[in-house]
Write a structure and sequence with these properties.
284 residues; alpha+beta; four-stranded antiparallel β-sheet; three-stranded antiparallel β-sheet; 55% helix; 14% strand
């Protein structure tokens, strides 16, 4: 699993065993969400003791003192480390109005701990896919969307004003469709720029895709497609020597003038201006 913090995209993943728990806890200087997947163990964290068994979720506050004892030989756990607390604040901003800082985010996670279990594996696997994909340049932005999905699933499962069927529809249908859209977007953002095409791959209407994107991300699907495409283009302009014609072909633009118009409309610069200014240190 990816534990490289040199390029900090806001999260990291760790696979915990009896043998690596001590070194792994040194990496958890920030918030952690751990799920016991096999075996049993007793964990002392700060002044509290927890008996872990499969599917037990443990929320680990930043800078916690943690010790694992009485672990069975087959004990394993998966750990999602949040390495930038602003990621959680960005994820919570539009869906949890009362969240004002790190403490309130942690409090929400503690309160809804049991609701995390059903979503943990899909979140973990999606983040793992993002971390392994060398061509994805929007790892932080997609991480925010994934954690927003997790929090929305937790909130909607516990919302007292919703019926059971309402909560099931939110937690399985729309949430699953949004995660699938994010996965398709990370795989095809260079070559597919049409909302209609993504909706067809998801077997839903463009209107429904628009509703779930605004529900879980706050942006429409076209804005999300354009934002990730722009990030990919900026990365190629800064980090490769490809010509504009080569980039036009790689990113599946119909013409070079169309690509230049798209880039200028969304960034304020022509591709050539952006490349020159970024290499001269005039742009971040």
């Amino acid at each position: 699993m990816n534990t490289d913090h040199k390029t900090d995209c806001g999260y990291a993943l760790l696979q915990l065993t009896r043998d690596n728990i001590a070194s792994a806890m040194e990496e958890t200087r920030f918030l952690g969400i751990a799920l016991c997947t096999r075996g049993t163990a007793r964990v002392t964290m700060n002044v509290s003791t927890y008996d872990l068994c499969p599917n037990y979720i443990l929320i680990i506050p930043p800078n916690s003192m943690m010790q694992v004892t009485d672990a069975s030989p087959d004990w394993e756990a998966k750990l999602i480390c949040v390495t930038r607390m602003e990621l959680l604040r960005d994820a919570a901003a539009q869906i949890l109005p009362y969240v004002k800082g790190e403490d309130s985010v942690q409090q929400f996670l503690f309160q809804e701990r049991d609701s995390i279990v059903s979503s943990f594996h899909s979140v973990y696997n999606f983040l793992d896919m993002l971390l392994r994909d060398e061509h994805t340049v929007s790892k932080y932005e997609q991480g925010v969307c994934v954690f927003r999905c997790l929090m929305l699933g937790m909130r909607d499962k516990s919302a007292p004003h919703r019926t059971l069927s309402d909560r099931r529809e939110i937690s399985t249908t729309s949430l699953s469709a949004f995660k699938h859209f994010m996965q398709l977007l990370s795989q095809h953002s260079k070559t597919i720029h049409s909302v209609k095409a993504y909706a067809e791959m998801l077997h839903i209407s463009p209107q429904y895709l628009g509703r779930i994107c605004r529900m879980y991300d706050g942006r429409g699907p076209k804005e999300m497609v354009d934002d990730i495409l722009l990030l990919q283009l900026k990365s190629s302009l800064k980090n490769t020597e490809k010509t504009m014609k080569e980039l036009c072909y790689e990113y599946n633009f119909p013409t070079l003038s169309f690509m230049c118009s798209f880039f200028r409309r969304h960034s304020g610069y022509t591709p050539s201006e952006f490349r020159n200014m970024s290499r001269e240190g005039m742009l971040q």
